[in-house]
Amino acid sequence: MTVIQDVGVYTMPAHLRTIVFDLDGTLYVNEQLAAEIQQAVSTYIAQVRQIPLTASSLLIKETRQRLTHERGTEATLSSVCTELGGTVADFHRTATQLVHPERWLDADIRVITLLTDLAQRFELVIYTNNNRTLAERILTRLGISGLFRHIVTIEDFWLPKPDRSALMLLLKTIGRSPGECLFVGDRYDVDLRLPAELGCAVHQVADSTDLLALASLAELA
Ligand SMILES: [Mg+2]
């Protein structure tokens, strides 16, 4: 499915004013950084539960699978942390210490060009379950930190995606109606299902090819 067909399901591209991007797994894909984030969760839960790191990793994996099965939608790391007795805020304090985007990420000129072009025509927004410090370090490393009108992180509402009230607060923050927004993310359940239910356009990206397909929007507008 192309992005234009995606958008066409919900609204005409002419109505679009704002593109709301997820960050991790959407504007970049990097296995080493993802592994470092997983390691940070394991370290945090090991501290919370006073268990060895290997037991923590296994517990997290089992809990994530169980929550996903029970809820029928993909469980986030935030929900796993809460389920295991931690807090989202404390996890992010640990992650900020242990995760190093600078070691793993490089700027991709194709993504910089895409977002620079889109920013000429649309208001660009980041909406991420990551924290502000890490989000800004990642955006800086990717060479795209100056292109977003709003950067909304877990620290704005402390309500991890997917969350309907957080989504309503996001729309209020950016001053847009659902019909004016296109949401772009790598996980349908987490990033796109609720926006689609509200009437936003959505575009799921599995890799950089899907992301770069948004260039057709820059040409249309
Ligand atoms: Mg993501």
Extract low-pLDDT stretches.
1-5, 7-12
Order of helices and strands: HEHHHHHHEHEHHEHEHH
How much helical structure, as a percent, in the residues? Answer: 55-70%
Shape: globular
Kindly name the structural category: alpha/beta
DSSP strand count: 5
Number of helices: 13
Q: Which cofactors or ions or other ligands sit in this model?
A: magnesium ion
The average pLDDT score comes to 92
Return Rg in Å: 17 Å
Quote the distance from N terminus to C terminus: 20 Å
Which band does the percent of strand residues land in?
5-15%
Largest sheet: 5 strands, parallel
Q: Please give the order of strands in the largest beta sheet.
A: 3-2-1-4-5
Q: How would you characterize this protein structure?
A:
By secondary structure, this protein is an alpha/beta fold. The chain contains 13 helices and 5 strands. Helix 2 (31-49) crosses helix 5. The longest helix has 19 residues, at 31-49. It is globular and about 55 Å long. Magnesium ion is lined by residues 22, 24-26, 185-187.
Topology:
Elements: H1 3-10, E1 18-21, H2 31-49, H3 53-71, H4 77-83, H5 88-98, H6 101-104, H7 109-121, E2 123-127, H8 132-142, E3 150-152, H9 154-157, H10 164-174, E4 181-185, H11 188-198, E5 201-204, H12 208-212, H13 215-220
Parallel strand pairs: 1-2, 1-4, 2-3, 4-5
Helix pairs in contact: 2-3, 2-5, 3-4
Residues 22, 24-26, 185-187 line the site of magnesium ion.
